[in-house]
Amino acid sequence: MPLNQGTDLNDCGCCDGITAVTPETISNRPGLTAIAYRVGNHPQFKETMLDRLSGSKLPALEKLTTRDDDDFSIALLDAWATVADVLTFYQERIANESYLRTATERRSVLELARLIGYELRPGVAAGTFLAFTLDDSPGALGQAFSLGTTAQASKELLPPITIGVGTKIQSVPGPGETAVTFETVEQIEARVDWNAIKPLLVQPQTVTQDSKMVILRPAATDQIPNLNLNAGDMFLLQTTAVKQAVKVAVDNDAKTTTVYFVESPVAPQRFKLDADLPLGSINSNLPKKDLDQTAVDGIIAESWESEDLSALVAIQGWSGNQLVSNIQKRTYPRTPDSGNAVMVFRQRAAIFGYNAPDYDLLRASFSLNQRSRSPAFPPPPSWEHHTIEEDNSPGHVHKKQRYIFLDTTYPGIVRGSWIALIDPALPHALVLQVTDNQTVGHINFTISGKVSRLTVMLPEGQTNLSAFKMRTTSVLAVSEPLMLADLPIDDPVPSQDPVTNDDTIVLDGVYLGLKKGRNIILTGQRADLAGVSASEVRSLKDVRVIAGFTVISLDQPLAHSYIRKTVVINANIAASTHGESVQETLGAGDASQQWQRFTLRQPPLTYVSAPTPSGGQTTLEVRVDDVLWHEAPNFYGHDSDERVYVTRMDDTGNTTVIFGGGTRLPTGQENIKAKYRKGIGLSGLVRANQLTQLMSRPLGLKGVTNPLAPSGAADPEKLHDARRNAPLTVLTLDRVVSLQDYEDFARAFSGIDKALATQLQLDGKTGVYLTVAGSNGAPVDESGKLYSNLVNAISAAGDSSVPFRVKSYNLRLFTLSAAVKLDPDLLQDDVLGAIRAQLRDSFSFEARSFGQPVHLSEVTQVIQSVPGVIGAEVRTLYLSDQPSILNTDLTARVPKPGADIKPAELLALDPRPVVLEVIQ
Fold this sequence. Notes:
Blueprint: H1 42-53, H2 72-96, H3 106-114, E1 127-134, H4 151-157, E2 161-163, E3 168-171, E4 181-184, E5 188-190, E6 202-203, E7 213-217, E8 234-237, E9 241-244, E10 247-251, E11 256-260, H5 293-300, E12 303-305, H6 306-316, H7 320-331, E13 342-350, H8 359-367, E14 401-405, E15 418-422, E16 430-444, E17 447-457, E18 474-481, E19 483-484, E20 487-488, E21 495-496, E22 503-506, E23 519-525, E24 533-546, E25 549-554, E26 568-570, E27 573-578, E28 580-587, E29 597-599, E30 607-609, E31 616-618, E32 621-624, E33 627-631, E34 644-649, E35 655-659, E36 672-678, E37 691-694, E38 701-705, H9 719-732, H10 739-747, E39 752-762, E40 765-774, H11 785-797, E41 804-808, E42 810-822, H12 828-842, E43 854-855, H13 856-864, E44 869-879, E45 889-890, E46 905-909, E47 915-918
Parallel strand pairs: 33-34, 40-41, 42-46, 42-47
Antiparallel strand pairs: 1-27, 1-38, 2-5, 3-4, 3-37, 4-27, 6-20, 7-11, 7-19, 8-9, 8-13, 10-11, 12-24, 13-18, 14-17, 15-16, 15-18, 16-17, 21-22, 22-25, 23-24, 23-26, 24-25, 28-36, 29-35, 30-31, 32-33, 32-36, 34-35, 39-40, 42-44, 43-45
Helix pairs in contact: 1-2, 3-9, 5-7, 9-10
C-alpha cells in the first residue's frame, strides 16, 4: 500500500516500547478545580528510558539487547521510573496547592491568602441578651426591713445592684451536649422592680346612662366575686337610667362580675392616657420641700421626662421608693369610688290596690236596693284607672313630695335609697329618691292592711305621678350600691404614638431609673397566633412619666403584637457573648532577641461581632510590663518605637502572638501577659432559656436566663469559604461602590453566608436592597448585633449618598415524592437512603442560591444520578404550604420594584421524610 495513503509504519506492533513519550505536553483550560502538572507516570517514564537505550547517542549501550524486566539494568530503569513517578505526583500536588481554586489543604489556602493580606476568618462568637432576676425576698442583702417582711416591702427597699462586665453564665446541657459559657460584655444597674414589669392592664371605668355593660367587684378585694346577680335583674345607672341585665359573667381570676345590658357583643372601651398634661420642670419645684400629698399630686398632674423626674428626686432628697409608693396609692384603683353610679334593685313591689276587686263586677251590688241607699253615701268612683297621684291629698299637690303606698311592708327600703316606677304603657321608668318609709294602716278599694308608705321627691321637671296607674305600675326598690371595678385594657401591646409612629407601652406604674438607650426584653403571647409565646429585645427611645405612669417608646417596631395581660418586660438586661475569660503569662521578654513569638495556651481565641470589614474583633489584650500593646494586621508602616504586635492562627486553631523586629521586648521575668476569652463558633448557639447557671453571683442576684436564643455565630472559615472570600478583599479593598461590592462585602463579613444585592428605588432614590442569610441559613435578626454591625460596616465603607436596606432572607420549603426502579442486585434500603441523602445535599441551604428555581428535570436528574437507580418518576413537586400537585417549576422570589419590597427567597427541601415508592 502506498505511503501517501496514511499507512501506519508500526501496524505490526514490532516497534512498541521504543518511543519517547515524556515529557508530556501540559495544557489546562481556565476554571478547573484541579490542574494537570505531571510530565509523565511510571509506565511512560520506563518506556522513554527504554527508548533511550536504543538511541544513537548512546552507542556504548548497543550491546545491551535485553529488555526483560528481570534483567538488572532494566530493573534499575524501572526503579528510576518509580522515583520519577513519585516526584511528579508530589510536584503536581504542590502545583495544585499553589492556586486558590485548586488547593485542597486549608494551610495552603491560608498561606496563599496571606500573600494578599487576607487572613482566614477565625469565626465569631454567638451573642445574646441575658435577663437577670434580683432577689426580692426579705433580707436579700442582709438588711432588716422595718416596714414588714413581705415581698412588697423588700421590693420597695432593696437598692439597685451593679452587674459588671465578665459575669459568667453557663448553659444547662441537654443529652449529648456540653456546657457553654457566656459572659456579660456590659455593666448594668439592676433593680428588683425591673424583674417583671407589666404594662398597664386596667383603666378607669366610666358609667353613663347609655352604658351597655358594667364591670363590678366585691367590696373587699379578697372576697370571691359572687355578687348574687343574675340575668333579669334590674339596675340603676347614675340614678337616672334603669336597665335590665341580659347576661351576667363572673371572672374568678380577676375577681370581677360583668353585667351586660344588650345581647350583641360589646366593643371594649379604647384606652387612652391623658397626654395633654403640662410638662413638669425641676425649676418650678424649687426650693426644696417635703414629700407630701401636695407634691405627689403635683407630679401626677404633669408630664415628666424620666431623667428630669429622677433628678428632681435627687435634688429634693426624696426617697424614690416612697414617691413611687405614694403615686401608686393615688392612681390605684383606677376607677374612683363613685357611690351610686351603679345600683341593683333587690326587690320588686306593687302599688296598694293592685289586687283590688274588679270595680265592674262590684257595680251591680252597689246598685241593689237603691231605695235603701242614702244620697249621703253615694257609691265610690271606679278605681280601675286609679293613679298614684290620686293617693296624695290635695295638701301635697303644691309640694315636691309624694306618697306611694305599697302592697305590703318593705322594711328594706331605707331613707335615701332609690326606687323606680315602671309602667308597661310608658317608655321609660321614673327614678325617685326615698325620703321616708313608714308602716301605716291603709284602707281603700274594699281592702285594708299594713303597708309601707314611701315619701319620695319628684325629680326636676316632674310635676306629678298621674301617669302611673295603680294596677299596672311596678316598683323597683331596695337599691344596693355596687362597686365598680377597673376596666381591663384589651388593646394589644404595643400601641402606636400618633405623632412619632413609634411603638409605645404604658407601664403599670412609675419606674424611676429607666433611661433612653436601655435594653429591655418583652415576652408574651402573640396576639396573631394563639398559644404561641415570643420574646423580643428592643432599646428605649424615650421614657416619660405621664399622669403617674411610665410611658416608654421603642427604637424599632416590635415584630409581633402581644396579648396585653401576658406581657412581661425585664429591664435588667445585659448583652453577652460566648466565651470564657482567661488570664495567663505568655513568657519573658528578651531585648537581645528579635521576632519573639508566644502561643496562647487555651485556644480557640474568641472573636466577637464588630462593625469592621471582616465582621469580627479580637478579645485578646496583651500587656508588657503592665503596658498595653496594640494588635496590627502587619508591621508595614509602623515605626520602630510603636508598641504593636500581630497574631497568626495556624491550621489547628492555635494563635501565636508575634512581636516585631524593630521594637524589641524589654527584658524581664514573666513580664508578657495576656488576657483573652476562649470559645467560638456555632457551639455557642444554645437554645432559648438554656443559659441559667450563674457561675459568678453578685450579692442580691437570684437568677438569669436568655429569653432569646443566641445568634450571629460563625465557625472558623472553611476551605470552600476561604476560596470564595479571600479574593473579595482585593475586589472591594474594604470599599463598597458597585452593586457587586455590596454582595462581596456582605459575604466576607463574619456570620454572613449568602448575600444578594438588588438595585431598586429606595426613598425616592436609586439604592441597594441587600438580602442576607446567616451561618447555616440562620435568619439575621434586625435587633441583633450581627445586623447592626453589618449595617454600620457597610455605611462606613460605602457611599453615604446611596440609600441601602438590609433584610434577612425568607426560607421557602418544598416537598416531593417519587417512584423509582432499582437495580435488584443492590440492597434496596441502601439505595433509597442514598437517594434521600443526594436530594438533601442537592437542595440544601448550602447548595442553593437566592432566587434559584427548582425544576422537575433537575429533581429527576438528581435521583437518576444515584448508583443503583434504573428509572425514576417524580409524582409530586410542590411548595410545602400549597396543595400537593406535580409542578414542572418552583420559583423563588427576588426583590422587585414596588411599594412593598420583599426580600429574596431560597428554596430548600422540606426536612420531613421524602416519600419514595419502589417500582417492581
